[in-house]
Specification:
The structure is a single chain. The chain is mainly beta and 445 residues long. The chain is 8% helix and 49% strand. The chain is built from two helices and 32 strands. The radius of gyration is 26 Å and the shape is globular. The protein starts with a helix and ends with a helix. About 3% of the residues have low confidence.
Length: 445
C-alpha cells in the first residue's frame, strides 16, 4: 500500500517534466544557427585586445561570439524583435568595445566582450532599419519608411545626434561611411524601365546634405538584386552587373565615373561576390569572386585613391567546383584566403604570389563526400621570419561550421541541427537482428 501511495505521489512530478519540456527546443550543443556571410566576422572584443573573437548573426536571429580557439560560445543573445532574420544586420566598429545590431523594428548595441545590452531602441513610425554602420564611436542607421530617414546615434547612449530625411521618393538601398561622409545609396526608377543608382552625400558631423548625383545604371540594374556590393572606406565603391552577368561595373563613391569590366559569355557565371577589407588603414584593394555551376575563380582590383580610378591587378586561376574567398587585414596589408576542395591558399593583395598554401584532406571530422564551402571569413597574421598564422572559419554545405587553423581542422559546430523541428527515437538494425536470432534459437530448442 505504501509503495502504491509513493508511486501515486510521483505522478505529478513525472507529468511536470513532460509538460515543461514538450515542444521546447533545448540544444545539447550551445548552437547559434547557420551564420550569415554579411553578418559574420573576426573582431577584437576591445581596442586593447590582440586576440579576436568570431561574431555572427545567424539565420535563427541569434547574435553570438565564438572563441576561435575551441569553438565555444562566449555569449549569445536572441533578437526577439526580428521577424525576418535574413534582413537583420550586425556591425563592428573600429576602436570601440561594442557591436551593433538592427532588425525590422529595433536597433541595439551590445558589449563585445560579454554580450551585455548597452542600449536598445524600438521604433515603429520611422520604418524598418535596412542600413547600419559605425561612424567613429557612433552608429548611423538607415530606415526605410514612407520617407527614408538616416540617424546618427550616440554609441554609448543611443541618443539621436542628428537626423536626415529624404523626401525624393527614391527607394533607399544602403548606407556606407567614407571618412566623415555618409553615403546614401538609393534606386531611382526610370520611366522606360531600369534603375539608376543615386548617391547622396551627408556630412557626418552636421547631418546636412552636401551633394547628390545619379549613376547611369538603368541598362544593367533592373532590381536591387543586381547590385553586387556597396562599401565604405577603405574601398568606397558600388558595384553592379546585369542579369546575364555580361559586364561588371564599378563606381568610386564621390565621383560620377564608372569603370566597366566585360565578362566572357563562355564563362556561364551564375553568381558574383565582392570581398573587401573593412579596417580604415587598409590598402584599397578588393577581390571579385566568380562562380559557375562547376568552377570558380577571382580577380583582384586596386583603387588609386588619388585619381579615383580602378584597375585590375591580377587573376586567381579557375578551379573546379565551388569555392569561397575571404578578405583580411594585418596592419595595412590585405590578404585574400581561398578555400576549395583539397586546398586552402593565401594571397597578398599586392601581387599574385602565394603567401601560404595548405592541403586539406577534409573540411571537418566526420564530413566526407560531396561537400562544398559556402562562405568563409579569415584572419591572417604574418610572423617575422616564419610562416603566417592562418585561421579560416568556413560554413559547409552540410551545415557544419568549421575552423581551419594552419591547414588543420581545429573544431566544427553542427549548426544545421538548429534547422530540425522534430526528432524520433529509432532502434538500431542490429537490435532487430539479435531479437530475430534469439527467437529462432528459442524455437529450435
Amino acid at each position: 500500500m505504501r509503495l502504491l501511495l509513493a508511486l501515486t505521489a510521483l505522478l505529478p512530478l513525472v507529468a511536470a517534466v513532460f509538460k515543461d519540456e514538450a515542444y521546447n527546443i533545448d540544444y545539447h550543443h550551445a548552437l547559434l544557427g547557420l551564420p550569415q556571410p554579411k553578418n559574420t566576422f573576426f573582431h577584437p572584443p576591445n581596442p586593447a585586445s590582440k586576440a579576436s573573437l568570431i561574431y555572427t548573426l545567424s539565420e535563427k536571429a541569434i547574435i553570438g561570439a565564438v572563441n576561435p580557439k575551441d569553438g565555444a560560445v562566449v555569449w549569445r543573445q536572441r533578437l526577439d524583435a526580428a521577424t525576418n532574420a535574413s534582413s537583420a544586420l550586425l556591425r563592428e566598429g573600429e576602436g570601440v568595445d561594442i557591436v551593433a545590431s538592427a532588425t525590422d523594428a529595433e536597433i541595439a548595441v551590445w558589449a563585445a566582450k560579454d554580450g551585455r545590452l548597452v542600449w536598445r531602441e524600438a521604433f515603429k513610425e520611422t520604418g524598418n532599419a535596412i542600413g547600419l554602420r559605425f561612424l567613429e564611436k557612433d552608429v548611423v542607421v538607415l530606415y526605410k519608411g514612407a520617407s527614408p530617414v538616416v540617424q546618427r546615434r550616440d554609441g554609448s547612449t543611443g541618443a539621436v545626434l542628428w537626423e536626415f530625411s529624404d523626401a525624393s521618393g527614391d527607394t533607399p538601398y544602403e548606407i556606407v561611411v567614407s571618412g566623415s561622409t555618409v553615403h546614401i545609396i538609393s534606386l531611382h526608377s526610370k520611366m522606360l524601365g531600369g534603375l539608376n543608382i543615386k548617391v547622396t552625400d551627408i556630412d557626418g558631423v552636421s547631418g546636412k546634405k552636401t551633394s547628390e548625383h545619379m549613376l547611369s545604371s538603368d541598362s544593367e540594374v533592373k532590381s536591387a538584386e543586381d547590385i553586387i556590393f556597396v562599401g565604405g572606406h577603405p574601398t568606397p565603391i558600388v558595384a553592379w552587373s546585369d542579369k546575364a552577368f555580361s559586364v561588371l561595373k564599378i563606381n568610386v563613391l564621390g565621383t560620377k565615373s564608372i569603370s566597366s569590366f566585360p565578362i566572357a559569355k563562355s564563362d556561364k557565371v551564375e553568381s558574383i561576390f565582392l570581398h573587401a577589407p573593412s579596417r580604415l588603414n587598409s590598402l584599397s584593394h578588393f577581390l571579385v569572386h566568380y562562380q559557375t555551376p562547376d568552377s570558380h575563380w577571382a580577380e583582384v582590383y586596386h583603387i588609386d585613391v588619388a585619381k579615383f580610378t580602378i584597375s585590375k591587378a591580377y587573376d586567381l586561376p579557375k578551379l573546379a567546383g565551388k569555392g569561397s574567398f575571404a578578405a583580411s587585414t594585418s596592419d595595412a596589408q590585405v590578404f585574400f584566403t581561398r578555400v576549395a576542395k583539397g586546398a586552402c591558399t593565401v594571397t597578398a593583395s599586392q601581387s599574385h604570389g602565394i603567401v601560404e598554401r595548405y592541403l586539406l584532406k577534409t573540411f571537418a571530422p566526420g564530413v566526407s563526400g560531396d561537400v562544398d564551402p559556402l562562405h568563409a571569413i579569415s584572419e591572417v597574421l604574418p610572423r617575422h621570419g616564419g610562416r603566417p598564422a592562418v585561421r579560416v572559419a568556413v560554413l559547409l554545405s552540410t551545415g557544419d561550421w568549421a575552423l581551419i587553423l594552419n591547414g588543420e581542422t581545429a573544431w566544427s559546430r553542427p549548426e544545421a541541427l538548429t534547422l530540425a523541428s522534430t526528432a524520433v527515437f529509432a532502434e538500431l538494425p542490429q537490435g532487430e537482428r539479435l531479437a530475430r536470432e534469439l527467437a529462432i534459437e528459442e524455437h529450435a530448442s
